[in-house]
Amino acid sequence: MNRNNADVYIAIGDDMTCTKTPHPILSIENLGITYPGGIEAIRSTSIQFQPGEFNVLLGLSGAGKSSLLRALNHLVKPTSGNVISAEFGALNNQRILRQHRRKTAMVFQHHQLILRHSALKNVLMGRLGYYSFWRSLLPMPQDSLKIALNCLDRVGLADKALTRVDQLSGGQQQRVGIARALAQQPTIILADEPVASLDPSTSEKILTLLKKICAEDGITAVVSLHQLEYAKRFADRIIGLSDAQIVFDAAPQQLDNKQLALIYEQPASLTKDETSTDIERLSTQKNLPHKTATQLEIA
Question: Which of 14, 63, 165, 214 could potentially form a cystine with 59 if both were Cys, beta carbons 3.0 to 4.6 Å apart?
Fold first, then answer.
């Protein structure tokens, strides 16, 4: 899905405003996140995500990328505002949140796999949301097993189904993470820095795979990245964040040096030859508290 005519957000005071587009799969309205100690992670923000769109959240560490992404399934609970699913409505009670999480898969930077288990057992974890607690204690039914094996095949790891995860490479482990996400049969995939711990060659393969699968299945993706070159190459739409607010929202082709300076908090003198690595080296790092997957309250 191409977003050459994407809306650009305009900062007005502490609020972000935008022109609404029809039939979003997921929306946030006036969402704000403030951590203990008064640390403002996201200022009041409204934004919509369209079906089948590959969205990249781009910005420095501490800009608010992970906080915004994790708020989309309440892994980080917003301080104010609402997250609204087109299918289930506002995420304002546990029943709706469970339904939304079942169809919203997560891919993590550090994989969040059980290392002593096989790749297949880890992928089957993606099916747990479809069963009651007591049923999940029993062996998975054949239909879920077939789904998990098919997901491993799609990421090129069918031959590793019975291999322990701790015997796989970092790139293979991330592919298991993607297969686990696919096993949920999601409409949305949230990927929080999915290639940050991988080498450049493996990173490109992982993002190529993720983009291909999302395009084939019509899955909406929201992916947080540091790397400018990957964002420009893979995104249908780039959402740039800086200082807890959205400063850019458009197609990659519309990202110029002036916009990069806003996102990376640098003077507007970046050249086309400067890479994201150069920008990261110039930038100061900010640290915001955030919840890990293991701290998610199972609804």
Answer: 63
User: Mind listing the pLDDT tens digit for each residue in 77-119?
Assistant: 999 999 999 999 999 999 999 999 999 999 988 878 999 999 9
The CATH number for 51-70+96-288, chosen from 3.40.50.1370, 3.90.79.10, 3.40.50.300, 3.90.110.10, is 3.40.50.300
Which tokens hold the place of 144? Answer: 């879920």
Residue 82 CB coordination number (10 Å) = 15
3-state secondary structure of 77: coil
C-alpha closest to that of 154 among 196, 97, 215, 226: 215
CA distances from 102 to 13, 95, 99, 206 (A): 36, 11, 5, 23
Express each pLDDT in 241-268 by its tens digit.
Answer: 999 999 999 999 999 888 898 898 776 5
Which 3 state secondary structure label does DSSP give 280? helix
Domain locations along the chain: 51-70+96-288
Taking residue 28's Cβ as centre, other Cβ atoms within 10 Å add up to: 22
Residue found by looking up tokens 């030859």 in the block:
273
